[in-house]
Specification:
The structure is a homodimer. In chain A, strand 4 and strand 5 form a beta hairpin. Chain A is an alpha+beta fold. The termini of chain A are far apart. In chain A, the strands form four sheets. Chain A has a seven-stranded antiparallel sheet, sandwiched between helices. In chain A, 16% of the residues lie in helices and 45% in strands. The mean pLDDT of chain A is 90. Chains A and B meet through strand 1, helix 1, strand 4, strand 5 and helix 3 of A and strand 1, helix 1, strand 4, strand 5 and helix 3 of B.
């Protein structure tokens, strides 16, 4: 056994797999809106596009998702790293004016005025919840089917990401203690045809 | 509406959220072993650590997971980018000798000889499947609870990743067409305490 391979304690295993992008989850019910950062969101299917999102029962956003049956997933960029961190450090349960305190700027897209979206993200997708009560209760796991999506065409074009020349638009990968990775540089596999 | 924001077609929405790390999923049933790359794996819970993995019915690996009730998630590094790509380009359904053809080197950890692990990864975690037949059949979604995990202590220490000085150990983020991102550089949020 290679001497550099060390066991990881049970309580830290999740750190291994927190390499995905940070997401912002937003939702609205009647006139109440909230936005929360989340790392545990993931593609689930291609067409129609589906995604999973883990949303703990303690989050104000969860009530809005359950009431409205919709949520948006968004990719915050380096340009809003501070706002993103603050969104995760206070709760609307205690701070009714959370979104203003965090300095978040919201907008909506035509036809989808019931879902607030966050400026400074690189992509936005709106999902309708596919009700799965067992998953939601037992695992805090929500499944959504995409109804619309948009991306910043400066860094997403030809249906792929290219952040070259746009460091401020690089997506964020949270580590801990206020530290993030940005999405890195390209590496090509050889012999691919 | 900002002019740079463009709609993303339904068939390409999943590209937006493929920014997570590439995983290798391995499994074994009796003397049959397989390894497949996958992007759609995600943390699900902290302690005990749980994870989700989307494993399509077409994959040979899936049979082994269903038969054995175990799978491993691993993070391949830049040092095995070619092997990783090849693992995703041929199937053991058609290539019984797939693992040798792909140049993969396997090992096991003491006490866990029933799960093959791949050399050249930065982390390895073994999961026991929590049977959820509806999720598995309807969404190809498997839920596992971690039973053990290890990491390369050169890049994972104090329970966080730090790839500084180890470019060959950076984890991979697949784009398409043989192109990957490596996990990028750190950026600090200001005012975090």
């Amino acid at each position: 056994m290679n001497q550099v391979i060390k066991p990881v304690e049970a309580g830290h295993i999740y750190h291994l797999f927190n390499l995905g992008s940070v997401y912002l989850i937003s939702a609205q019910s009647e006139d109440r809106q909230d936005v929360m950062p989340a790392s545990w969101c993931c593609n689930l299917d291609l067409v129609p596009a589906k995604a999973t999102a883990v949303i703990d029962k303690s989050h104000y956003t969860r009530k809005l998702v359950e009431e409205s049956g919709y949520f948006a997933l968004q990719l915050p960029t380096a340009s809003i790293v501070n706002e993103t961190l603050k969104l995760g450090s206070i709760s609307k349960n205690d701070h009714p004016d959370k979104l203003r305190e965090c300095g978040v700027s919201l907008f909506t897209m035509p036809g989808y005025e019931h879902i607030p979206l966050v400026r400074g993200c690189a992509a936005w997708a709106i999902y309708q919840v596919i009700p799965e009560p067992h998953n939601q209760q037992s695992y805090d796991l929500f499944i959504g089917q995409a109804v619309a999506a948009w991306a910043d065409s400066r860094v997403f074009f030809n249906n792929r990401w290219d952040f070259t020349g746009h460091d401020e638009l690089r997506t964020l990968h949270y580590v801990s203690g206020g530290q993030f990775f940005v999405t890195g540089n390209a590496v090509e596999a050889k012999g691919f045809s």
